[in-house]
Every structure is written in structure tokens, then in C-alpha cells.
């Protein structure tokens, strides 16, 4: 499972059209401009499948054609949720595909599909073309599969429909060992299902970014105010391959362009319409894989036969019924193995300034939340730093993979800075008394429950070592002196794979 932001090859087919996604597209001079709605008015810029075609990389969209992949057939989106493509073959909103006729690769690879409406609407027929190409060893090198509405797991459709559909795709791929041994399947979503997510998506601020934000700021117009595009809501993403097996979690920041970036790395076909800020902030998905040690053991997946839809009729939207005795849901107990991440982030408070540093290999967006003021989005590239003056005496700092800082400026003159000893999985807290009187300081480790008290004379400093070896790099420590507080939490990256947060998993 990956943490991704509107990350979509089982899903929408183009990097530039997602559910209410906003961004500047088409900088290749072919009808470019800001797209901020789902107007689907018809576009002309070059799509990534066209770049694959030009480079000689085979590709295809697998779908059901519904009542037709033309305007008359609503581009495959029909009132019958068990046929068609739910309008998610985004290539059909481009003029070059709309005007393509049989014999043209754009038509043959993006405007064909099954016709289950003529075969009794049987779900078993939905993947006929895909199954045939896998069996014959003629599967293109890049493929997109687009499901009908009833299988998309949108709120008014039972998740078991989607589970059955995805299981069919995996079973088909696994039926040909030659294909299974060198494939990667990306199962993606464009919505979060209505579940609460406390993480605010990263957004660019030209005044607070060490990397270029060109084409990431909407200038305003057509009744819409100016503002940053940034990433969308966080959505799930599952990667299935011999190099990702084992229940691994990857919490690097990704978005819908990450899939295109992955294909760039695999085939060397560059997509020029991805902005510099987005390339810096979002990864290319390679960190989700372990290409050195593929997992070739047979897969024993649960049977989904009983999940195949039997009632092929549209269902009304389900109205949630609040429980009579409401209670917050509990986090599933336990941890998962987690991939190593390219982050090494730092945030310290010095007087009225928050100092942000990035000593890692990937750009990160810090969200700085001063009490009583608007949150600030600050982008810091590798090897760079940024200082933000604050008027509030209480501030939180959030970053990727659970990075968290909380600073409350009080009357104490104690100052704290954190640094890392990655080789020993240790956080080093340099605590200094800059005042004129003795300072009593408490250092509390939330993971161990241990608290130590230090007494510092004026002008002296002590270094407190917080080991994170037992928790595989996870730390959460608070330094308190009177009404002054400095809390440091997150994960210490050392280049090795780790686990998900044991505190969140109820193991601490």
C-alpha cells in the first residue's frame, strides 16, 4: 500500500484528468492552459500514450464500450453501471482520439473494448480481451484497465464488486508465468471514500519554496479565485508485483504523475508537462519496489467467487445510519513492514523563528501551523533550509511519514535543537539554558514511558540521547521546562527498511 495523492494503471488513463483535479497542462504548445473542473470540453495537448506510441512502446486501454465510445454513447459512461467505462478513459476527451478512425493506433488502442451489453451483461465477459492477450502472450508493455461504475467502489457500490473485479485481473495475470514474472499492477483510486484523513495535501507557495513553482499557481479567472494547485486528497494505492509482495507499506509522497514518472524510468519516455515542483515533491514509485530480491513464492489469495455481482441493477445511494452508541473506530492492531524513504527532515524553534532543514534525498513540503493564524506551506529541497518568522508563540510543524514538531514558547530560556545519529538509530537533543537562572528540564519518551529530569546552570548545555532502535526508528520525545515545550516525533531514516508506527498499531 502506498500513500498517494490522487495517484492513479488500473484507473484513469491520462496524467492530466482526475476527479476534480486542478493543474496546468499542455505546455507543449497544443492547447495548453489551466484545467480546474471536470468540464471535459475537449483537449488537444499531447497525451502520454502518444509519446509511448512515438517511442515504439506498445500500449492499450482495456474497457467495455458501453453504448459506444463516442459523444453519442457518452464516451462509455451510461446509466447502466454494469457496462461501459464510467467515463474514466480520459483519452476520449481529447480531439485527436475522438477524430481517430479504425486503423489509427489512437483508435485501435483507446477506442475498442468488450461489448457485454450484447452478451447478457455478464460480468465474466468484462475482461475477455485482456484475458485473451495475456493467454496469447500479446499483452502490450503498458496497459490501462478501466472498470464500469459498479466495480469502482464508489459509496453506493459494495466494495465486494471491486474486490471481485481486481481479483479477476490478478488471476488472469498470474495464469501466464512469463507475464507474471515481469509485471507490475497498480490499483488506484481517485477518491477517498468519504473517510476522514487528517493529512492536508501538500501545496506550493512561491514565496516559501526552494524549488520552482512555475505553472503550479492558478492566476484566477472564470469566477474562480487565484491560488495554488498542489496535490489532491490522499487516496489509497496498491502495487502488485513480484518485487512488492509481503504486505509492505510505502509512505513517500506520490501523486497521479508518479505513475507517468515510473513509466519514464522504465521506458525512457519523458513527459514534459509535469511541473518542476511536482517532480520534486512527488516520487516516481520506484521506492515501493525491491528489485534485488523478487518474491517468487506462490500466492494464496482468498476466493472472491461469492463477490461476483448477481443483481445487475442500479442501487440507490446508501444513506448512512448513525449507530445508537457512537464510538470512535480503533486502529487495527499490529505493524507492517515499511520501505525505506528518502527523507531526512529537521525543524527547530529559535526565539520567534522556525528553522526548517532538509538533509535527505527528496524534496518535502512542511506545513507550519501557527496558533490562531493561517497554516503555511513551505517546500524545502534536498540540502536546503528555510527560516520562517512567527508571531504566534505556539506552532505545529507537519511533514511526510508522521514528521511532527510542536513548539510552545514560554517564559523559560531553554532552547532545543535535534539532530540524528542514523547509524545508531538515535535522536540527539541538544538542550541549552540561555537564561540567567538554573533551569529544570524534563525529557519524556512516549515510546518507552521513561522521563528524565535535567538541571542546567545558566549558559550550559546537555545532550540527551533518545534511542529509537527498539521501535525501528520511530521516536516521540517531549522536552518541557516550565511552560516551554518542544516535541519531536517522526521516523529516523537510515536507508534500511523498517516497520509502520508501532504506537499507532497499539504495540506501545
Automatic annotation (TrEMBL):
<protein>
    <submittedName>
        <fullName>Alkaline phosphatase family protein</fullName>
    </submittedName>
</protein>
<dbReference type="InterPro" id="IPR007312">
    <property type="entry name" value="Phosphoesterase"/>
</dbReference>
<feature type="region of interest" description="Disordered">
    <location>
        <begin position="313"/>
        <end position="333"/>
    </location>
</feature>
<feature type="domain" description="Bacterial phospholipase C C-terminal">
    <location>
        <begin position="337"/>
        <end position="408"/>
    </location>
</feature>
<dbReference type="InterPro" id="IPR008475">
    <property type="entry name" value="PLipase_C_C"/>
</dbReference>
<keyword id="KW-0378">Hydrolase</keyword>
<keyword id="KW-0843">Virulence</keyword>
<dbReference type="Pfam" id="PF04185">
    <property type="entry name" value="Phosphoesterase"/>
</dbReference>
<dbReference type="InterPro" id="IPR017850">
    <property type="entry name" value="Alkaline_phosphatase_core_sf"/>
</dbReference>
<feature type="domain" description="Bacterial phospholipase C C-terminal">
    <location>
        <begin position="415"/>
        <end position="483"/>
    </location>
</feature>
<dbReference type="Pfam" id="PF05506">
    <property type="entry name" value="PLipase_C_C"/>
</dbReference>
Amino acid at each position: 500500500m502506498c500513500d498517494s495523492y490522487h495517484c492513479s494503471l488500473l484507473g484513469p488513463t491520462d496524467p492530466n484528468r482526475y476527479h476534480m483535479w486542478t493543474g496546468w497542462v499542455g505546455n507543449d504548445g497544443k492547447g495548453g492552459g489551466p484545467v480546474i473542473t471536470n468540464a471535459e470540453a475537449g483537449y488537444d495537448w499531447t497525451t502520454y500514450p502518444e509519446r509511448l506510441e512515438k517511442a515504439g512502446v506498445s500500449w492499450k486501454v482495456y474497457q467495455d464500450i458501453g453504448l459506444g465510445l463516442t459523444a453519442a454513447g457518452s464516451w462509455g459512461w451510461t446509466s447502466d453501471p454494469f457496462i461501459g467505462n464510467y467515463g474514466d478513459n480520459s483519452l476520449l476527451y481529447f480531439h485527436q482520439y475522438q477524430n481517430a478512425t479504425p486503423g489509427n493506433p489512437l483508435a485501435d488502442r483507446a477506442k475498442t473494448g468488450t461489448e457485454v451489453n450484447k452478451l447478457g451483461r455478464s460480468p465474466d465477459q468484462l475482461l475477455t480481451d485482456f484475458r485473451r492477450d495475456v493467454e496469447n502472450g500479446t499483452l502490450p508493455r503498458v496497459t490501462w484497465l478501466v472498470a464500469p461504475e459498479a466495480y469502482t467502489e464508489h459509496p453506493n457500490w459494495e466494495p465486494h464488486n471491486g474486490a471481485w473485479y481486481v481479483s479477476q485481473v490478478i488471476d488472469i495475470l498470474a495464469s501466464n508465468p512469463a507475464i507474471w514474472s515481469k509485471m507490475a499492477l497498480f490499483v488506484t483510486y481517485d477518491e477517498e471514500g468519504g473517510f476522514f484523513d487528517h493529512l492536508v495535501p501538500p501545496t506550493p507557495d512561491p514565496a516559501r519554496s526552494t524549488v520552482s513553482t512555475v505553472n503550479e499557481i492558478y492566476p484566477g479567472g472564470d469566477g474562480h479565485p487565484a491560488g495554488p494547485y498542489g496535490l489532491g486528497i490522499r487516496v489509497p494505492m496498491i502495487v502488485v508485483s513480484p518485487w512488492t509482495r509481503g504486505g509492505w507499506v510505502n509512505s513517500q509522497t506520490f501523486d497521479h504523475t508518479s505513475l507517468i514518472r515510473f513509466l519514464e524510468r522504465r521506458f525512457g519516455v519523458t513527459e514534459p508537462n509535469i511541473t518542476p515542483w511536482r517532480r520534486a515533491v512527488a516520487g516516481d514509485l520506484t521506492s515501493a519496489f525491491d528489485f534485488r530480491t523478487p518474491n517468487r513464492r506462490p500466492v494464496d489469495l482468498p476466493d472472491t467467487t461469492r463477490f461476483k455481482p448477481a443483481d445487475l441493477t442500479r442501487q440507490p445511494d446508501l444513506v448512512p445510519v448513525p449507530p445508537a452508541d457512537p464510538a470512535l473506530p480503533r486502529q487495527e492492531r499490529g505493524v507492517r513492514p515499511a520501505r525505506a524513504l528518502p527523507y531526512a527532515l529537521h525543524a527547530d524553534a529559535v526565539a520567534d523563528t522556525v528553522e526548517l532543514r532538509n538533509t535527505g534525498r527528496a524534496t518535502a513540503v512542511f506545513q507550519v501551523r501557527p496558533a490562531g493564524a493561517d497554516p503555511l506551506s513551505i517546500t524545502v529541497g534536498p540540502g536546503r533550509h528555510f527560516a520562517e518568522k512567527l508571531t504566534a508563540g505556539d506552532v505545529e510543524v507537519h511533514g511526510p511519514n508522521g514528521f511532527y514538531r510542536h513548539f510552545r514558547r514560554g517564559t523559560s530560556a531553554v532552547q532545543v535543537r535535534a539532530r540524528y545519529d542514523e547509524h545508531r538509530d538515535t535522536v540527539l537533543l541538544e538542550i541549552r539554558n540561555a537564561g540567567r537562572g538554573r533551569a529544570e528540564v524534563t525529557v519524556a519518551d512516549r515510546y518507552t514511558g521513561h522521563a528524565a529530569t535535567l538541571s542546567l546552570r545558566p549558559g550550559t548545555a546537555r545532550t540527551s540521547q533518545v534511542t529509537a532502535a527498539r521501535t525501528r526508528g520511530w521516536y516521540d520525545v517531549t522536552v518541557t521546562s516550565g511552560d516551554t515545550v518542544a516535541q519531536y516525533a517522526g521516523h529516523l531514516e537510515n536507508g534500511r527498511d523498517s516497520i509502520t508506527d508501532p504506537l499507532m498499531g497499539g504495540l506501545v
